[in-house]
């Protein structure tokens, strides 16, 4: 695991390198001294906000394309919430409701729910399409991309 992460200050947009052990202690921006906040829960993304959500975040972005009618999405929801909390600062979790955001689902060729896509530096680095046949350890899958 890397010993530090890069976080963008929400106030002045400066990139700050923050040691992992400082993440839980309300790190301050080196430029403007404001507290650097970061999401600890999944963030709902829309077609209007998606590109900015991905490009603004210097670390990995984990996107779940989900549907309100999908039973498997409901099953994995607690795991997705846990990933957002446990890896807060190192990873941002975005959720895209494919019924509300059909254009985003089309853009990423989402044919099944849930579909998980991992982005780094704005690029897709890995994805899981649809409910896996075997129960997959999403936490381990995400962690493979955080080193
Ligand atoms: Zn700042």
CATH A-level architecture of the largest domain: 3-Layer(aba) Sandwich
CATH class of the largest domain: Alpha Beta
Tally the beta strands.
Answer: 7
What would you call the shape? Answer: globular
Give the bound compounds. Answer: zinc ion
Average predicted local confidence, pLDDT: 93
Radius of gyration: 15 Å
Spatial separation of the terminal alpha carbons:
5 Å
List segments where confidence is low: pLDDT < 50 over at least 5 consecutive residues.
none
Supply the CATH superfamily name of the largest domain.
Answer: Glutaredoxin
How would you classify the helix and strand content by structural class? alpha/beta
Q: What can be said about the biggest beta sheet?
A: 5 strands, mixed
Give a concise summary.
By secondary structure, this protein is of the alpha/beta class. Helices cover 24% and strands 27% of the residues. It is globular, with a radius of gyration of 15 Å.
Can you describe what's shown?
The protein is of the alpha/beta class and 147 residues long. The chain has 2 domains: 1-37, SH3 type barrels (Roll), CATH 2.30.30.380; 39-144, Glutaredoxin. It is 24% helix and 27% strand. It has 4 helices and 7 strands, in the order E-E-E-H-E-H-E-H-E-E-H. The protein has helices at 50-56, 71-86, 102-107, 138-144; strands at residues 4-8, 15-19, 43-44, 60-66, 91-97, 115-120, 123-129. Strands 3-5-4-6-7 form a 5-stranded mixed sheet, with helices on both faces. It has a two-stranded antiparallel sheet with strand order 1-2. The radius of gyration is 15 Å and the shape is globular. The model has no long low-confidence stretch (mean pLDDT 93). Bound molecules: zinc ion. Residues 9, 11-12, 14, 29, 31-32, 34 line the site of zinc ion.
